[in-house]
Write a structure and sequence with these properties.
Strand content: under 5%
Oligomer: single chain
Number of domains: 2
Distance between the termini: 49 Å
Shape: rod-shaped
Number of strands: 0
Mean pLDDT: 75
Largest sheet: none
Helix content: 40-55%
Structural class: mainly alpha
Length: 127
């Protein structure tokens, strides 16, 4: 926003009152920003959005770990894991479960958990 305010006022010679109208900001805010010696955006901490999987990532990790000792063909699918999570009250989507399963990285040398994709539809929906 500061990158727009500075040129409007300095280059185009528009009053700070008109700049505040165009930018939709308070006149006092525009005035204080223009008076700063160095024009820099105000720093705000990055947002950390709440995710539906936040409370269940540990459960997911344990399930993947318990499957890691099995042969690859015998491991549970992501769809089966998703169905089990739905039964426990999970309200998120299948893609979140699949993505979280693939995001998990294990240290080298250990059996890495793997989520196989199911080619059927979601539980309760025809495939």
């Amino acid at each position: 926003m500061l990158a727009k305010i500075g040129p409007l006022h300095l280059r185009d010679r528009i009053s700070s009152r008109e700049v505040s109208r165009r930018a939709g900001l308070s006149r006092n805010t525009v005035r204080s920003w223009l008076r700063r010696p160095e024009v820099a955006e105000p720093k705000c901490p990055p947002r950390k959005p709440a995710r539906k999987l936040d409370g269940r990532t540990e459960v997911l990790r344990v399930w993947l770990r318990s499957d890691s000792h099995r042969a690859r063909r015998e491991r549970g699918t992501a769809m089966a894991l998703y169905g089990a999570m739905l039964a426990q009250g999970y309200a998120g989507g299948y893609g979140r479960v699949l993505g979280e399963g693939h995001r998990r990285e294990e240290p080298p040398g250990s059996a890495a958990p793997h989520l196989a994709r199911s080619h059927r539809g979601a539980p309760g929906k025809p495939g």
